[in-house]
Design brief:
Largest sheet: 9 strands, mixed
Shape: globular
Structural class: alpha/beta
Distance between the termini: 28 Å
Number of helices: 13
Helix content: 40-55%
CATH architecture: 3-Layer(aba) Sandwich
Number of domains: 1
Number of strands: 9
CATH superfamily: Alpha/Beta hydrolase fold, catalytic domain
Order of helices and strands: HHHEEEEHHEHHEHEHHHEHEH
Length: 324
């Protein structure tokens, strides 16, 4: 189909790089270091630092489950914009369990027998200018826009840089002997869900994916720039041709076929009609490939951002296709 045939060139415009180049490993060592380790009841959590470019490092939590033998599934868990739209929390929201955090998807997936990597996206947590003493969102917000503009001078967008970093995170995940490289999946929340869909297309090592609550980001992107929450949409602000993110997402979802993918969305974020419209192309492609069961979109209604039954649907989906 034409929209699939043209997708590579369209995505190249969006991320400022040729998609095939994103798959090529640069001749830069990961220089992987263990910063700290913590033994938890059901898993061991390691804080790792690794090189993402010649002059830049990133941190990630990697969780190893206890009580499981043999090679395990590997999951890349991509965080969203953080609580109260702060840059203070990134990877920790997915990797660290506590009574106030119901979004610890990485930890919960790990307890089901998977090795999980939760990297810090730029400019969250370890990569933020925010501190406990100075909680100013704007300091990091303007820093993010500055970096975004610098990237544009080099012909790259922030979105392209983020996707490259996610590919490097998969490099790290697949380097562990505990991981079966034929059983790697991705899951993402909000902005992270959008990235999960794109990285599922770009990285052949990732076999299945799940995106949760992309709709909030889609709604913010439609607002006048002065009314947007900037830390939701910075990655898109400088892309003049990106008038409608919905169309771009529609093509992404159609192009990941026949890989298994599930989209879970709270109707408080976006209507069922809009989700159905975005998914129409993808469902047609999956049907033509005779694998309609590999693409699912579910709209739920809840006052909670992510209720437990919806999380279980996500976990079941990833587990199902890892065993397939």
């Amino acid at each position: 189909m034409r929209f699939v045939e043209n997708f590579n060139s369209d995505l190249g415009k969006l991320i400022g790089d040729n998609t095939s180049n994103l798959r090529v490993k640069e001749n830069i060592p990961l220089d992987l270091k263990i910063v700290s380790e913590k033994e938890c009841e059901f898993y061991n959590r390691k804080l790792l630092r690794y090189r993402i470019s010649k002059d830049e490092y990133a941190d990630a939590y990697v969780l190893f489950p206890k009580g499981f033998n043999g090679e395990l599934g590997g999951v890349l868990a991509i965080h969203g914009e953080g609580r109260e739209h702060s840059y203070k929390v990134g990877k920790s929201s997915l990797a660290i369990e506590n009574k106030d955090n119901h979004l610890a998807l990485g930890a919960e997936i790990c307890k089901k027998g998977n090795v999980v990597i939760c990297p810090d996206r730029f400019p969250y947590e370890s990569r933020s200018l925010e501190t406990n003493e100075d909680s100013s969102l704007e300091k990091t917000d303007y820093y993010r826009m500055l970096v975004c503009n610098k990237l544009l001078y080099n012909g790259v967008t922030e979105l392209g840089k983020e996707l490259k970093e996610m590919i490097i995170a998969v490099d790290v995940l697949s380097s562990f002997k505990e991981v079966n490289n034929n059983k790697i999946s991705v899951i993402g929340l909000s902005e992270g869900g959008f990235l999960a869909a794109m990285i599922l297309y770009l990285d052949h090592r990732i076999k299945s994916g799940c995106a949760i609550n992309i709709g909030y980001m889609l709604n913010e992107s439609k607002k006048d720039i002065s009314k947007r929450k900037r830390n939701i949409c910075d990655m898109f602000l400088a892309i003049s041709e990106n008038k409608n993110i919905n169309d771009g997402l529609s093509d992404v979802l159609a192009s990941i076929a026949p890989k298994p993918f599930i989209w879970l969305e709270n109707e408080n974020n976006v209507s069922k009609r809009e989700v159905d419209s975005i998914c129409e192309k993808a469902k047609e492609v999956y049907l033509n490939m005779r694998v309609p069961n590999k693409f699912v979109s579910i709209i739920y209604v809840s006052s909670m951002f992510l209720p437990n039954d919806i999380k279980e649907k996500a976990y079941h989906w990833l587990d199902k296709w890892m065993k397939f």
